[in-house]
Design a protein that fits this description.
By secondary structure, chain A is mainly alpha-helical. Helices cover 79% and strands 0% of the residues of chain A. The termini of chain A are far apart. Classes of the chains: A mainly alpha (253), B mainly alpha (249).
């Protein structure tokens, strides 16, 4: 294995640790630097220049962690091709472009979709589905991280143009559609589970009480969604309302 | 039994942000796995579903207030281990929501510590860069980590980064371990004396918690795609229920 290949493999696995030191001030800067170190150590520079380069890299970096290889590969190639000032000027734009597409694809699409579909299938079929989903996602992102790093290094400044490709935007659209499919799937599973299991719930004294509670919970959720409330706070308020209702019913009896 | 929630909580806490982000930390996976470990796969899957829906409107970008759904998922399942009644699982789920909020504060504190660590590394590296300008010899500045006398300064970056990852592992282990212990303690202490109305309310919460979170998840995803895809999801969900013979609960 050549030094360059060894360095790329080392950068690839370091990208898995990209956000270990994530913080609101410098975000992924140290993670990006640590992933770039195999490359930095191959540069024919003296220790001062390396330390200066590394300190400059620590200022601020932030992009999507799954696709970060694109930004890292491209910026390292730009440092090889031209003066560092040009690369440092382009880095923030590259990071932002990768973040825009990566966040839309992963955080708004694929990850919620996998989470919703996995949770629905775990309840409806078997919890083992969750382990399968975990393994499949880990394997897929291992491949993606490697591909992104290679692609970013090969394309350098052209990486931004690559992100504007129609296929990338279609992938984002499909990821978002999958998210809504996941939401529909979990809605059906929740409705089925609540309707079939609720009569066995203590306190579900009659079908009417059960129906009222179900409609009340759904209405509270819809109002909260309309007002943009946080789900966990709504759940705490819902628990308090259930407690007040149960206490009130006991007093009336 | 204390070791298992700490081990899973630590691994999942690491996966949450610091290493991998492979979805082990997602409540859907963490709770399903924890439920299977404690011998309550159906309850674990229901915790997974409830927390997935309650966390669905929290996207981990921007200035979103942090919640530790991972530790909540692990602690709820391990804390209610051995319990068979739905009110006990409802209580565990409710307490796990409080833990998610407390855990979020710990994550914020860990990140603040990471910011200090990065600042320290930067100061060290700038010191290394300025030594050359002052005429000091460049080689032998310590460490010997890289070729051509790269010096120990670069090694400082690696060690600091790994230390931050270890902090996340520790945070996840402590939050999930303490959370599971606290929930188990509360159930053991208060459970036998719990009056009937409170049991009924907690059992109702166990059943209805996902119903509360569902509209928020639907609202979020309906903004991103055409409603027709929702119909496809509903059909898929009903097919899953039919395939699974009525659900794991």
């Amino acid at each position: 294995m050549s030094g360059a290949t060894r360095g790329r493999v080392s950068s690839w696995w370091r990208l898995w640790l990209l956000q270990a030191s994530w913080n609101p001030k410098t975000m992924q800067s140290l993670g990006m630097l640590v992933a770039a170190l195999p490359w930095l150590r191959r540069q024919p520079w003296d220790a001062q220049r390396r330390a200066g380069w590394a300190a400059r890299e620590l200022e601020f970096r932030n992009t999507n962690p799954y696709a970060a290889g694109l930004a890292l590969g491209a910026s390292l190639r730009l440092h090889e091709l031209g003066p560092p000032e040009v690369a440092w000027r382009l880095e923030p734009a590259l990071d932002r472009a990768v973040a825009a597409v990566g966040d839309a694809f992963f955080w708004s699409g694929i990850i919620p979709a996998i989470g919703l579909l996995t949770a629905a299938a775990a309840v409806a079929i078997s919890p083992w589905i969750a382990l399968l989903a975990w393994g499949a996602f880990a394997a897929a992102q291992a491949w993606l991280r490697s591909r992104c790093l290679a692609l970013g290094y090969d394309r350098a400044a052209e990486t931004a143009a690559l992100l504007g490709d129609g296929r990338v935007h279609r992938a984002v659209t499909w990821a978002r559609r999958t998210g809504l499919v996941g939401a529909g799937t979990i809605a059906a599973v929740v409705a089925h589970a609540v309707v079939t299991a609720a009569p066995g719930t203590p306190g579900w004294t009659s079908p009417l009480t059960g129906a009222l509670l179900l409609v009340g919970a759904a209405a509270a959720g819809i109002i909260a969604a309309w007002r943009g409330a946080q789900a966990d706070r709504l759940a705490l308020v819902g628990a308090l309302a259930l407690w007040a209702g149960a206490r009130g019913a006991a007093l009336l009896r | 039994m204390t070791f298992l929630p700490m081990a899973l909580g630590g691994a999942a806490g690491l996966d949450r942000t610091a290493f991998g982000q492979t979805l082990l930390s997602h409540p859907a996976v963490a709770a399903s796995l924890a439920g299977w470990i404690v011998g309550a796969p159906a309850q674990g899957a229901w915790v997974a579903l409830s927390l997935t829906l309650l966390s669905a409107s929290h996207v981990p970008v921007g200035a979103e207030r942090l919640r530790d759904w991972t530790s909540a998922a692990v602690a709820a399942c391990f804390g209610a281990a051995g319990q068979r009644e739905s009110w006990a699982w409802g209580a565990a789920l409710l307490l796990s929501l409080l833990l998610a909020n407390a855990g979020g504060m710990l994550i914020a504190a860990t990140r603040a510590a990471s910011a200090s660590v990065v600042e320290g590394v930067r100061t060290r590296l700038e010191g290394g860069a300025n030594r050359g300008q002052g005429g000091a010899p460049s080689a032998g500045s310590g460490g010997g980590l890289g070729p051509a006398g790269a010096g120990g300064d670069l090694g400082v970056a690696e060690r600091a980064h790994v230390a931050c990852a270890a902090l996340h592992l520790l945070r996840g282990a402590v939050t999930a371990g303490l959370g599971a212990w606290g929930i188990a303690w509360a159930l053991g202490r208060l459970g036998p004396r719990m009056p009937e109305p409170e049991r009924a309310a907690l059992a109702g919460f166990w059943t209805l918690a996902p119903v509360l979170g569902l509209p928020l998840a639907l609202r979020l995803h309906l903004r991103l795609a055409r409603p027709g895809w929702l119909a496809l999801g509903l059909a898929l969900g009903l097919a899953l229920c039919r395939l699974g013979g009525g659900g794991a609960r």
